[in-house]
Design goal:
single chain, about 450 residues, alpha+beta, 2-methylcitrate dehydratase PrpD, 60s Ribosomal Protein L30, Chain: A, four-stranded mixed beta sheet, two-stranded antiparallel sheet, 20 helices, 8 strands, about 5% strand, globular
């Protein structure tokens, strides 16, 4: 009697468990290190946000334990609680990397959860790298298998399922335990796009909950608790419940031949990735034509449905930072007036700047005829000047994409800006030491050698 063929879910899980550092191509290892480094910097910067205090209070209310460290502050908590805080810090400024095809921020849930577990178990840098690669593989393959517009918040939910697979890989769990853990993670996964639409801080909190959930799922599975195994393909699994349409063939396409970590994109600016295209195009058009904000009559952006869904919202003097970071008009006006877009541009003072708000009213985003509901490009940006001159640029890839990557120098500049913008800024020496240690991650016998460099020491 022939055995029943494995489902797509089982094949993906089996692949994730088999990933080992020794077998990873060099370019995959380097890309993993690049985005681990980027995410650590972003998470350290996220310590500056006032609501971190509330998230820490929630973590502390769930009991004290010294399993893992909260980045930048150095406080100790259980692995699950520390992961929750660190995930919030990574995503609370919209500065963390993204996999565009999947519409998933892969590292916020994944790195916070995996680093906490790796610290608790004193795992090596190589184990962390292989776990991250495995987790990103799972999370982004789920996301890019969707063929309908995003409605559940994929960075949170897909991140939790992926993180549980990555932790299982690092801890060498069995396939049965891994399926249980991933099913449990799915069962208490959380996050919808309502928080995104409203610009609510619950958006990064959904990421935080799912980092905690992934670790809790692993703990339950290790204790023999079983979860649903058909959590992706079942009648009430992820695809049937949380996506309107999907293509399961994409779940396994090029599996083992092309690693998804290589498709992750940097965010040069602390805004939603969907707002990056307009900023990118304006930078290039200004360099070419040397116009100022006073020269602008209006700006029109023609972009795919996803861009409009994510960042086509009108500016308001009553908006908060979370809303503004997802407002294409505000972020574009900010660049035109200041020549940059930084974390300081979302302060209370900046958000009510009348000149900035007036310019933002001249910037309109409209939906193009692109038929892919998950596409971020092409985008066409048209600048109409008061002189009557019309300037236009079409982007097929946005700065930070793997086809238009940040240079090593640009990556370090971003990392430095992140660390300098923390609640208590790191010094140049501290930044250099942390960066160098991250570049040598694969040489660490325990990532606990790295952790002390990730928080500001009390004097």
């Amino acid at each position: 009697m022939s055995s029943k063929p494995e489902s797509s879910t089982q094949q993906l899980v089996q692949f994730a468990l088999q990933i080992s550092y020794a077998q990873l191509p060099e370019d995959v290892i380097e890309r993993a290190k690049v985005f681990i480094t980027d995410s650590v910097g972003v998470g350290i910067s996220g310590s500056r946000m006032p609501l971190v205090k509330a998230v820490k209070a929630l973590a502390a209310s769930q009991g004290s334990c010294d399993g893992a460290t909260i980045w930048h502050s150095g406080e100790k908590q259980s692995a699950a609680a520390a992961a929750m805080v660190n995930a919030f810090q990574i995503h609370n400024q919209e500065w963390d990397c993204v996999h565009e095809k999947a519409v998933v921020h892969p590292m916020a849930v994944i790195l916070s959860a995996l680093t906490a577990v790796a610290e608790e178990h004193k795992l090596s840098g190589q184990q962390l790298i292989q776990g991250v690669v495995a987790a990103v593989e799972v999370a982004t393959r789920i996301g890019q298998s969707a063929t309908s517009p995003i409605k559940f918040f994929r960075p949170a939910i897909c991140g939790a399922i992926g993180a549980s697979a990555g932790i299982a890989n690092m801890l060498n769990l069995s396939k049965q335990q891994t399926l249980d853990a991933m099913g449990i993670a799915y069962s208490h996964g959380s996050g919808t796009m309502q928080a995104h639409i409203e610009g609510s801080p619950m958006l990064p909190m959904q990421v935080a909950f799912n980092a905690r959930n992934a670790i809790n799922a692993i703990t339950l599975a290790q204790q023999g608790f079983t979860g649903p195994h058909n959590f992706l393909e079942g009648p009430f699994g992820y695809f049937n419940l949380m996506e309107d349409s999907f293509d399961l063939s994409l779940l396994l396409k090029d599996l083992g031949e092309h690693y998804q970590i290589c498709d992750v994109a940097h965010k040069p600016f602390p805004t939603g990735r969907a707002a990056h295209g307009t900023i990118d195009a304006l930078i290039e058009l200004q360099q070419q034509h040397n116009f100022s904000s006073d020269d602008i009559a209006n700006i029109h952006i023609s972009a795919p449905e996803l861009i409009c869904r994510l960042v086509d919202r009108r500016p308001s003097p009553t908006m908060d930072a979370n809303y503004a970071k997802l407002c294409n008009a505000y972020t574009a006006a900010t660049y035109l007036l200041t020549g940059k877009v930084s974390v300081e541009d979302f302060s209370k003072q900046a958000l009510v700047d009348q000149q900035r708000l007036a310019l933002a009213e001249k910037i309109i985003t409209e939906q193009s005829d692109c038929q892919d509901p998950n596409a971020m490009v092409p985008q066409t940006i048209t600048v109409n000047l008061v002189s009557g001159q019309r300037l236009q640029l079409t982007l097929d890839n946005v700065l930070g994409h793997p086809l238009r990557p940040l240079s090593a120098k640009q990556q370090f500049e971003k990392f430095s800006l992140c660390c300098q913008s923390a609640q208590t800024p790191l010094t140049e020496t501290e930044i250099t030491q942390l960066h160098q240690k991250l570049q040598q991650l694969e040489k660490l016998d325990s990532i606990n050698e790295l952790i002390p460099l990730m928080y500001k020491k009390k004097i």
